[in-house]
Design brief:
This protein is α/β, with parallel strands linked by helices. Helix content is 29%, strand content 25%. It contains 12 helices and 21 strands. The strands form 3 sheets. Strands 4, 14, 15, 16, 17, 18, 19, 20 and 21 form a 9-stranded mixed sheet that branches. An 8-stranded parallel β-barrel has the order 5-6-7-8-9-11-12-13. The protein has a 3-stranded antiparallel sheet with strand order 1-2-3. A hairpin with a 2-residue loop joins strand 20 and strand 21.
């Protein structure tokens, strides 16, 4: 169970902090997302301590998990937020986030989202194209505002991660090409309703090596030095996020080593450092609790059919991602190799392949490392209500999202007259 703080066995029974997962399943049903407040707090504080007095802002990537309770815990700790939609902006504000600690990323911000962010007086817009820059200047002029901007520059660095979550190569849709950056910065300086405040890059997610971070940072620092030599003042340097976590056999850099490497690379430059961690803050602070519905022993494969499915946890189907699957109660008995699958009518509906488990009907399983991109990517495919979410705080369990009902799912639909 390496990497899972706050989740541990006590007398062969798996607990979240001081609460048995059996008790959580009995009270809230399954499937159910379970988060640890202590683990979330510890992850944030590890990032904060790693900067050791250096001027910085940790902007949590809201897309990783946008539950209001998680956002509120982070806001209380002093976190900033990296958002990619108007909906995420509303979530952060509702959860008590400071708008002056919000950066707005994303390649397709629409006019309504820009207006809402300008009205909220956010810290910075991360601009991803020249056309977006011109639109923001126009909208800010209409609102009699000046928009703080940073250009997201694409450094063309291979993040060595899954191609779907690699964002820093020249063929990706993200960011402004490095060769265009200086020209667009100078163009931005001539616009009356934008104010240049930062320089930004982000190369991908679930990065397990430090070298791509350093390569991208060095490219950005070279650009920063050129811009400053040309009279452009850059107040902050946003080096993105993407630090990976351990799901199985990965060995990503520690938070301390990652931050230290970035700070050494930046050197004596005075710019404030922004980072945008998501998965590395919440990934190992949550699990998905599920129950075995049926065991199906076929001639060539054994199937454990559970009540969680690809609509609850999309990562295995989408990325062929690995999540450790643990029994909630350790028990003696014959071990079999199972395909752990859900009830959705897709062959791609699986939670894990070839897992060696001792199982019986109604057993509870914990799908680990599900705090990031689990609930936030869930859907209602097959008209399945989304799972409940709970947060454990010591010996107390808080319901932070009630399980949906079928009635809620179909309430907004109408049949023809």
């Amino acid at each position: 169970m390496s990497g899972f703080i706050s989740f541990a066995y006590q007398h062969d029974q798996l607990f979240a902090e001081s609460v048995s997962l059996i008790d959580i399943a009995n009270e809230f049903g399954t499937p159910c997302y379970v988060y640890s407040r202590a683990a979330l707090t510890a992850a944030y504080q590890e990032f904060s301590r790693a900067f050791a007095g250096r001027d910085h802002l940790i902007c949590y990537a809201v897309k990783a998990n946008s539950n209001l309770a998680i956002l509120n815990v982070l806001a209380r700790l002093g976190s900033g937020f990296d958002i990619v939609s108007g909906g995420e902006l509303q979530r952060v504000l509702k959860a008590g986030g400071n708008p002056r600690k919000i950066v707005f990323s994303g390649v397709g911000k629409n006019q309504e989202e820009m207006r809402a962010a300008l009205a909220a007086d956010i810290l910075c817009f991360n601009i991803e194209s020249e056309m977006e820059l011109l639109r923001l200047n126009q909208i800010a002029q209409e609102m009699n505002k000046v928009a703080p901007v940073s250009l997201r520059v694409n450094p063309d660095v291979d993040a060595k991660t899954h191609p779907y979550i690699s964002t820093g190569l020249k063929e990706n849709k993200f960011g402004i090409p490095m060769a265009e950056a200086e020209r667009i910065y100078h163009a931005a300086r001539e616009l009356s309703h934008v104010h240049i405040t930062g320089l930004d890059c982000h190369i991908g997610s679930q990065l397990t090596e430090i070298d791509p971070f350093i390569e991208a940072s060095n490219k950005m620092l070279n650009l920063l030095d050129r811009l400053e030599s040309q009279g452009l003042h850059i107040a902050h340097l946003d080096l993105g996020g993407g630090l990976g976590i351990r799901y199985n056999q990965e060995s990503p850099p520690s938070i301390k080593d990652y931050v230290a490497a970035l700070c050494v690379t930046v050197g004596q430059r005075k710019q404030r450092i922004l980072i945008e961690p998501g998965r590395s803050l919440v990934g190992n602070t949550g699990l998905l609790l599920t129950r075995v519905e049926y065991l199906k022993h076929a001639p060539h494969r054994n199937f454990a059919i559970v009540d969680a499915a690809m609509n609850d946890l999309m990562r295995p189907a989408l990325y062929d991602a690995y999540h450790e699957i643990l029994p909630v109660i350790k028990k003696a008995g014959a071990v079999s190799t199972y395909q752990v699958v859900g009830p959705v009518c897709e062959t791609g509906d699986f939670i894990g392949h070839d897992r060696k488990l001792t199982l019986a009907k109604d057993d509870l399983l914990a799908v680990m490392s599900a705090g990031a991109y689990g609930m936030s990517m869930s859907s209602n495919y097959n008209t399945r209500p989304r799972a409940a979410e709970v947060m454990v705080d010591g010996d107390t369990v808080h319901l932070i999202r009630a399980r949906e009902t079928i009635e809620q799912l179909i309430a907004s639909e109408k049949v023809l007259d």
